Amino acid sequence: MSPAVAGRQLLDADEARVARASRELTKIAASMVSRPMDRDLHEQMRFFLASQSEPALASWDVLLSRTPQELKERISTVLTAQVPRGAL
User: Fold this and answer.
1) CB neighbours of 15 closer than 8 A, spacing ≥ 6?
2) Quick one: which of 63, 83, 87, 88 has its CA closest to 7?
3) Residue 38 contacts by C-beta under 8 Å, 6 or more apart in sequence?
4) Burial of 56 (0-12, 13-18, 19+ CB in 10 A)
5) Which of 9, 27, 42, 70 is 20 to 30 A from residue 76's alpha carbon, by CA?
6) Each residue's pLDDT tens digit, 22-66
7) CA 30 to CA 16: how far, in whole Å?
8) Rounded distance, CA 57 to CA 60, Å?
9) Cβ(50)–Cβ(56) under 8 Å?
10) Terminal Cα distance for the chain, rounded
11) Are 9 and 76 within 8 A, CB to CB?
């Protein structure tokens, strides 16, 4: 299994949704800097806002509601799972 696939499986649904939305928005925003009047980019942004924005924002709210202890536990889980088996 590739590291990218393994990493995706480490995230819960809310974490994965926020990560995907963040990557997509960053890609669109970066493209808008060099091509601000590109109709395809505007369409991509409209599609994102219509179909993915609300679920991503709901997941973001879930992540923001986590306590510092819950966040530390999630970080520990993800980092521990990514340590190569041979290194243990």
Assistant:
1) 59, 63, 74
2) 83
3) 31, 32
4) buried
5) 27
6) 999 999 999 999 999 999 999 999 999 999 999 999 999 999 999
7) 21
8) 5
9) no
10) 19
11) no
**Which value, to the nearest 10 degrees, does the dihedral of the CA atoms of residues 24, 25, 26, 27 take?**
50
Three-state secondary structure string covering the chain:
CCHHHHHHHHCCHHHHHHHHHHHHHHHHHHHHHHCCCCHHHHHHHHHHHHHCHHHHHHHHHHHHCCCHHHHHHHHHHHHHHHCCHHHC
pLDDT over 60 at 5, yes or no? no
Whole-angstrom distance, CA of residue 71 vs CA of residue 11: 12
- Residue positions counted in the chain: 88
pTM confidence score: 0.76
pLDDT at site 1: 46
